[in-house]
Amino acid sequence: MKNTFVNRKYIIMAIIILVSLVLLTRLFFIQVIDKSYRFSAENNVLRAVTQYPARGLIYDRNGKLMVYNQAAYDLMVIPAQTTSLDTASFCELLNITRDYFRERIKSARQYSRRAPSIFLRQISAETYARFQEKMFLYPGFYVQPRTLRKYSKPVGAHLLGYVSEVDEAVIKNDPYYKMGDYIGKSGIEEAYEKELRGKKGVKIFLVDVHSRIKGSYANGRFDTAAIQGTDIITGIDLELQEYGERLMQNKTGSIVAIEPSTGEVLALVSAPAYNPELLVGRIRSENYAKLQSDTTLPLFNRALMASYPPGSTFKPINGLIALQENVIVPSTTFGCNNGYLFVGCHSHSSPLSLKYGISNSCNAYFCQVFRRILENSQYSSVADAFNKWREYLTEFGFGTKLGTDFVNDLPGFIPTSGYYDKYYGQNRWKALTIISLAIGQGEIGTTPLQMANMTAAIANRGYYYSPHVVKSIGSTGAPAERFTVKHVINIDSLNFEQIIEGMAEAVNGGAGSTARSAAIKDIIVCGKTGTAQNPHGKDHSVFVAFAPKDDPKIAIAVYVENAGFGATYAAPVASLMIEKYLKGTVTNKYQEQRILELKLEAR
Questions:
Q1: 435 and 343 in contact (C-beta within 8 Å)?
Q2: Does residue 205 contact residue 220 with C-beta atoms inside 8 Å?
Q3: Closest to 529 measured CA to CA, from 324, 330, 346
Q4: Of 209, 245, 293, 543, which one's alpha carbon is 20 to 30 angstroms from that of 524?
Q5: Considering the chain, what percentage of its residues have pLDDT values greater than 70?
Q6: 8 Å CB contact between 550 and 504
Q7: What's the distance, Cα to Cα, between the start and end of the chain in Å?
Q8: Contact in structure between 225 and 54 (CB atoms under 8 Å)
Q9: Degrees, nearest 5: CA angle 451-455-461
């Protein structure tokens, strides 16, 4: 009997020891090995507050500040800490309605009674200063600093883009962003978001069971500082950009100016434009809706996204291809009897050589040039010759994206031989079938950016650099390597000289020269007028040019919609822009006043 009790004692002791070991092991695992419980406990007494960095600044090519930051504040609320307060004075202080107050408090409580959430976004510095003096009257509310974009001049909205709050799709695709963060939208803000945004920091605070801050955790040992975004220097000339937008007020169209030797964009104007300040702060959503519903489409970036037939500004390209393919020489002449077959032309002297065919913008001349290109005996068919013609166009960057740092530029359209095979049938079309391509009409669609790039390639006598808006990232950072790659066109540089002579004659020649309205004293401007057909109304006025002739500093394309002949309005606009850039001032005040006072309705 005694042995039985002894055995039971040992069994009970063994069970107690075993249970104790299990409990000790579990406690060791929970407290030492498994950190999740520790983190959960710490989360009940610590609050991590995001420190948002200031976005990088944006400068023009001359170091003039274009975009900077101004202080703004998000008002946060912790519902569990709010007590009875004077709602009327609170709402008056923040310029909000009682309905808004009730809705936000309800929404915050539904989210969490003890965790902070945004009550009012983007309070101005002035409002914050007033609120800070009386914040002690409103427990449960505190302010989180943010920054908003500010503009030195109300220009460049399409170029710069804007900043807005991230949506769920962005958060899902990029773990860097959390709800309430901001991200660049369109323009430079979007294209260089990673450089501009900087890096978020964090401050960790001790809080009590009521979520009230009691001080910094561990004297800030685990805090991280926010790192400001990198500044960006653009190739834009701010004064030229501002002047271009003034010239295009009350008009529809675009201006693109490029430095030929680098591909840097000097100005990019899309009209109608809007003040970039409209898309900043709490008014952004309301103003965006208004701009989006505006029938003049101020949000539409015509410089990058509008596709027009190039019209007669395309004739120099057909002349270059014909010279390279040896189907004409500079002295080749063609007659004109006010047109060619069913393609009309204006009155001028006849016959003409290549130089004067360009300066007089003779449709008949270039129709016959185009026929020679497509009816070239060295090719087995018109389709083969057409494919070669199209190959030259793609070398100029037509029908494809140019590899820019813009996020929304479009490729335009250059038809393929298959396009015509499908429409007319294989081997059932010829040069005369598509003769409108000879004068930049028909199915061709090009963007103003592509036309400015074409002009830069001519100015360079056969090459271009991909157009780009950013000159350098930071004070020493170079732009992307792709912007230093020279795109060489497979056309002899001597052939470009022949075309340039014709473009110089068009501006600086005598009677019959179509672009004399673009002439500038002491500067040899080389240009080409165009009239782009518009099926919806009056034709568009188009002009491309570069200057000076022998040391080109600027290449430009101008489109003024519903304005008729290129020489009437587009050429003067380009001339004023060129003189403004090269001389810093404009001497032709009559021409300037005429353009500034011009009002054209969009159609």
A1: yes
A2: no
A3: 346
A4: 245
A5: 93
A6: no
A7: 113
A8: no
A9: 145
pLDDT tens by residue, 543-601? 999 999 999 999 999 999 988 778 889 999 999 999 999 999 999 999 999 999 988 86
Strand partners, 165: 182
CA count, 13 A, side-chain hemisphere, 356:
15
Strands 58-59 and 232-234 turn out to be: parallel
- What is the 3 state secondary structure string of 148-191? EEEECCCCCHHHHCEEEECCHHHHHHCCCCCCCCEEEECHHHHH
Q: CA 96 to CA 131: how far, in whole Å?
A: 13
User: What is the token pair recorded at 248?
Assistant: 């295009």
Report the C-alpha gap between 499 and 489 in whole angstroms.
15
Strand partners, 544: 528, 557
Q: Other C-beta atoms within 10 Å of 311: how many?
A: 28
Q: How far is CA 159 from CA 60, 234, 238, 261, 458, in A?
A: 12, 11, 11, 21, 25
pLDDT at 48: 78
Residue type, 104: R
Instruction: Give pLDDT tens digits for 251-296.
Output: 999 999 999 999 999 999 999 999 999 998 878 889 999 999 999 9
- C-alpha distances in Å from residue 444, one per residue of 15, 297, 436, 440, 441: 91, 23, 9, 7, 6
